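Data deposition worksheet. Section B asks for the primary sequence of the deposited chain exactly as it was used as input, without tags or linkers unless they were present during the calculation. Section C holds the resulting structure in token form. Section D is free text for depositor observations; keep each observation to a single sentence. Incomplete worksheets are returned to the depositor.
Section A, Depositor: J.P.
Section B:
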Amino acid sequence: MAGSLKLVCTALQRQWFHTAGCHFKGRTGAEHLWLTRHLKDPFVKAAKMENYRCRSAFKLLEMNERHQILRPGLRVLDCGAAPGAWSQVAVQSVNARGTDPRSPVGFVLGVDLLHITPLEGATFLCPADVTDPSTVQRILELLPGGRADVILSDMAPNATGIRNLDHDKLISLCLSLLGMVSDILHPGGTLLCKTWAGSQSQGFQKRLSREFQNTRTIKPEASRKESSEVYLLATQFHSRKGPGTR
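Section C:
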């Protein structure tokens, strides 16, 4: 994580003890526990300070800083985009607003089942199911050249609290996304997707390795330590449908 972000988070942690007390009145034990974690979380505070829509922005910021996933001029498909924090990071990183006249202008398309508040520099397709063939067709129509250079996925199913079941459901969602990659991703492109660690993780990573030249598992600092959440980064996609267009 960048040193400046660490300084921001440290300062915000110090402020927490002065503001937390009023939030706990009349809360149940479970609500009290959730609020304690939420209010003490430096990334929640930092997201407000930096005007990101939620703390998950810092996961992508960190992964992008370490692995150079995004750069000016790239076309990005953000799956499971609501509330739009990853799209915010992508818009900045690919110069989608054209704010840097010296750099190529990228494109960001976000898709989600939920409504997403409009964001300058991004196009949102919502409500829409990214696994629906009609949605895929609309994605291809909206992407410049009909292809994405990077697919981001922070998608997750509604959690049941049963770890193995939730893991299986998320892997199924990831496999559905992988099945669309050949239609959407430009040759040499990148896929970054969230998974929950579990029995099927290794098998899914093997599937990725057949489609991409390189794969790795990432656990960003902004991902809570108690969470089984990890991200799989796959680069250099091997197209099965020819060179595509640019």
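Section D:
Residues 163-184 form the longest helix (22 residues).
DSSP finds eight helices and seven strands in the chain.
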